[in-house]
Amino acid sequence: TTKIHSVIERLGISPINPSWSTGKNDDINVSSKKITSVSPVDMQDIASVGVISDDDFEKVIRTAKAAYTIWRDIPAPQRGQVLRDFGDTLRKHKKDLGTLVSYEMGKSLQEGYGEVQEMIDICDFAVGLSRQLYGLTIHSERPNHRMYEQWHPLGIVGIISAFNFPVAVWSWNAALALVCGNVCLWKPSEKTPISAVVCQKLLSSVLQNHELPDGISNLIHGGAEIGSKMTNDSRIALISATGSTKMGKAVATAVAARLGKTILELGGNNAMIITADADLDTALPAAVFGAVGTAGQRCTSTRRLIIHEDVYEEFKKKLVGAYKQINIGNPLDENNHMGPLIDKDAIQSYLNTIEAIKTEGGSFLVEGKVFKPTELGSDTYVQPCIAEVDPSFDIIKTETFAPILYIMKYKTLDEAIQIQNNVPQGLSSSIMTLNLREAEVFLSHKGSDCGIANVNIGTSGAEIGGAFGGEKETGGGRESGTESWKAYMRRQTNTINYSKEIPLAQGIKFDL
Ligand code: NAD
């Protein structure tokens, strides 16, 4: 507690934080409706935020629109400088912010630091990108004409984020959106608003050092109702939403109704195929970290192991042995591998899923249970469990955001791939094999149908250099690396005639 209190003090968190924030603590109304962030680690209140009022929402949009006219005029490489400074600020505060993320969300301290590292990495990426927002030049079919395409910013980018990556997901979006010349409006998860308050303060201090106006980065608070207000507002050109598939369907419908743009990063149901040619010693830590890391609350958590019958029994034994060594407890204690689930609702869905597995006829190699470490006073800690299931079970087709691992047997690779693809989600996947043919089939068009397909590493822990996202009910969006930036810009095709004629395309004649 002393440690976390000094972190909170150093980060300058107030007991009550404003409902919207430019990062300074002035000129802000604190609405009567409040959200209090409670740490799942020990059930202590961290601080509160106000839910944005309708009037304040209008003020934020006005401020953001005004800021956009200034920000879009700044050359992209100069915008990159701002992101460079933000990355440096994050380097300075990595330990404190990482600790707060761990305390507010419940992930291990190492994972909290890792999340801030991801923010630093995306800032570096954005700096490079600021000189690489390339368009193509195209040969015109008309003589003495030049064609090219260029990319312009969209305006206000709305970011709706999930609780499990309270800061990294925002930074993937914000770093790219900003470098592309947009301004951002962020509504973090109502379960982790305080980490967001800190991010906003840090970025605002950088913007102020560059003598930039308020409104380039905006933070507002509230739950689904505020998210829905954003999605229905046509002044927000793009909504980038990360969360459950249920939320994604609501967002997609609302934004489509106004023909706006979306980036959707939704639920996963990720599988690892362990073939008879796998190196089981590497498969084991990859599977265990994938299943229990962040207490199974990553969109890329490994939820299903599809194991070849020849190595099934051997791997099962190794897995059960490894699960016995997992330390569960205070995530701020670096000896623990796994912290709590986010809240009581998460515990309930963990318990409901365990019941559903039993009802369908599954059996447990490691039984699940809820427990309450006496020294912490929180009852949101659970035992990660392993269930043996049949691929035909319904329950394994839904994502339960908890450390429940399903294991099942297969005979042929075609069958394994069919099992792996036979779920509505399509985020991450992996195959563990030393057999080149198996690996290549898995990566081919008839292999994994996911946005991420790995060989000999697990399903979680993506790097920011690659585009991140998934297919089917995962929503189809891509964030971070390669060409993801294009989703934050609008494309314009330009044709310039430097002749004295006015030839028409397709050889059409129109003589006057
Ligand atoms: P959630 O869907 O409950 O909430 C996510 C965000 O959406 C929150 O900010 C919430 O307030 C908002 N929201 C909820 N309903 C809304 C609506 N109708 N309109 C607008 N906004 C709405 O998700 P969660 O429990 O915070 O996060 C867990 C989920 O997120 C999991 O399904 C996980 O797989 C997914 N996730 C996906 C990715 C990815 O990149 N694919 C990354 C992280 C988490």
TrEMBL record:
SUPFAM superfamilies: ALDH-like. It comes from the Bacteria. It is an enzyme of class 1 (oxidoreductase). PROSITE patterns: ALDEHYDE_DEHYDR_GLU. The active site is at residue 265. The keyword Oxidoreductase applies. The keyword NAD applies. Residues 31-493 form the Aldehyde dehydrogenase domain. Keywords: NAD, Oxidoreductase. Its EC number is 1.2.1.3. Homotetramer. Belongs to the aldehyde dehydrogenase family. This is aldehyde dehydrogenase (NAD(+)). It comes from Albibacterium profundi.
